[in-house]
Write a structure and sequence with these properties.
With 433 residues, this protein is α/β, with parallel strands linked by helices. It folds into 3 domains: 117 residues, Rossmann fold (3-Layer(aba) Sandwich); 227 residues, tm_1862 like domain (pyruvate-formate lyase- activating enzyme, Alpha-Beta Horseshoe), CATH 3.80.30; 60 residues, OB fold (Dihydrolipoamide Acetyltransferase, E2P), CATH 2.40.50. Strands 2-1-3-4-5-6 form a 6-stranded parallel sheet, sandwiched between helices. A 5-stranded mixed β-barrel has the order 15-16-17-19-18. Strands 7-10-11 form a 3-stranded parallel sheet. Strand 5, helix 5 and strand 6 form a beta-alpha-beta unit.
């Protein structure tokens, strides 16, 4: 019996998929990377926004049509429960979003001809610490999940209902995993959770991310440590100082702010703060820091003036990296009940206008690197033989790349010095020196 897995969604989902594969491997199941030759296909789904759900459902239907035994895991069954099976009765079994190692129970049941669903009514994430992840993508960098779940109740977000309250992993387990990855040749680890900055509060009674960074910084054969998904009120001076002083922690802050206008932030159930001041503080305390954010346009009730406030905020702050999303209406969230909902046309216009502005800012930001030398991590080679790298100012999969020529062969994972001689809106070009 061969088992394949198709992963959808974020890096946090990717780790869950790798944990499921690890649990299956531990039990001696045969895993294939080619779903066409598999008997059973596990589809780990995303349910964050409508488009992500559609992609997951398309994948399920495709595998059902191919005659595969399909098990659906993750956020989609957690959100829709029996309604999903009613809509697609061919699904053999479902596993919610909170206990990846329960995949073994489902597979064992299936081999006896029993169909089962394991979905917690009140979700609480359990990280299977006894399982060795089977990495789907092996490269220069690797994600480490330091916690899951979320204690905030942002107006647009369904995640707390799907993942439960915040659960941190023990610090020593994270350090052990990081050492194992570094020994395997991983150069950069990327710390992820729904909110990395709240790490440790549930376990130790206080924010433990600075302490975790200190311990990870001691790992000899590790080059870079990156933090994603920080929460504004949790950017304490202790955490900012840890990022500034620890040499392996890249000077990069990923802090999804969502909006700038006080009324919209209040309606989003987000912290109402002077974010311009906050970003200025990062830039003062951490020399040469890169600040990335994500913003939402077209949130219910967002007026033209409130969007202009956001536009001017982006214009003034000049984020080094920025992503924007058109608000997606999700059942079960507070914002679903709000009026007026903004039309798709206006949402898209606002999105385009904001991203055009960011494109200009990004181009201007990138040009400052011309004639400088950057430390970059080797990702691989293009078909033409150009070396593909990524600077410490760029996170994997979401930010730009560096394309360079090299006189000598280089190895993925190595850190090289690149002299930058050109730039466009999102990428840099140069030569390895």
């Amino acid at each position: 019996m061969k088992i394949a897995l198709i992963n959808h969604g974020c890096a946090k989902n990717l780790v869950d998929s790798e944990l499921m594969l690890g649990a299956l491997d531990k039990e001696g199941y045969e895993i294939t990377l080619d779903e066409n030759e598999a008997d059973i296909v596990i589809i780990n789904t995303c349910s964050f926004i409508h488009d992500a759900e559609k992609e997951s459902v398309d994948s399920i239907l495709q595998m059902v049509d191919a005659g595969k035994k399909v098990i659906v895991t993750g956020c989609l069954p957690q959100k829709h429960k029996s309604d999903l099976k009613d809509a697609i009765p061919e699904i053999e079994g479902m596993l919610g979003a909170t206990n990846p190692s329960d995949i073994i129970k489902l597979i064992k049941g299936l081999s006896k001809g029993q169909s089962e669903d394991i979905i917690q009514e009140i979700p609480k994430y359990v990280y299977p610490e006894d399982v060795q992840r089977q990495q789907i993508t092996v490269g220069a960098s690797s994600y480490i999940k330091i916690g899951d779940g979320c204690n905030y109740e942002c107006g647009y977000c369904i995640i707390p209902k799907l993942r439960g309250k915040y659960v941190s992993r023990p610090l020593e387990n994270i350090v052990k995993e990081a050492k194992y990855l570094a020994d395997k040749g991983v150069t950069e680890i990327v710390l992820i959770a729904q909110d990395t900055s709240s790490y440790g509060i549930d376990l130790y009674g206080h924010q433990a991310l600075p302490k975790l960074l200190e311990e990870l910084n001691k790992i000899e054969n590790l080059s870079w440590i990156r933090i994603m998904y920080a929460y504004p009120t949790m950017m304490t001076d202790e955490l900012i100082n840890a990022i500034a002083k620890l040499d392996k922690v890249v000077k990069y802050i990923d802090i999804p702010l969502q909006h700038s206008h006080p009324r919209v932030l209040q309606s989003m159930k987000r912290p109402v703060m002077d974010y311009e001041k906050l970003v200025a503080k990062f830039r003062k305390m951490i020399p040469n820091v890169t600040v990335r954010t994500s913003l939402i346009v077209g949130y219910p009730g967002e007026t033209e003036e409130e969007f202009d406030h956001l536009y001017n905020f982006v214009k003034n702050v000049k984020f080094d990296r920025m992503g924007a999303f058109e608000y997606s209406r999700e059942k079960g969230t507070y914002s679903d009940t709000l009026k007026p909902q903004i039309s798709s046309k206006i949402k898209h216009q606002r999105y385009k206008k904001l991203m055009e502005l960011q494109k200009r800012i990004s181009s201007e930001n990138n040009r400052k690197y011309i004639d400088t030398t950057l430390k970059c991590i080797v990702e691989g080679y293009s078909d033409e033989g150009t070396v593909i790298l990524r600077s410490e100012h760029d996170a994997p999969e979401v930010d730009g790349l560096v394309y360079a020529v090299s006189k000598e062969p280089v190895v993925p994972g190595d850190i090289e010095n690149v002299k930058i001689n050109n730039a466009d809106e999102y990428d840099l070009y140069g030569e390895i020196i």
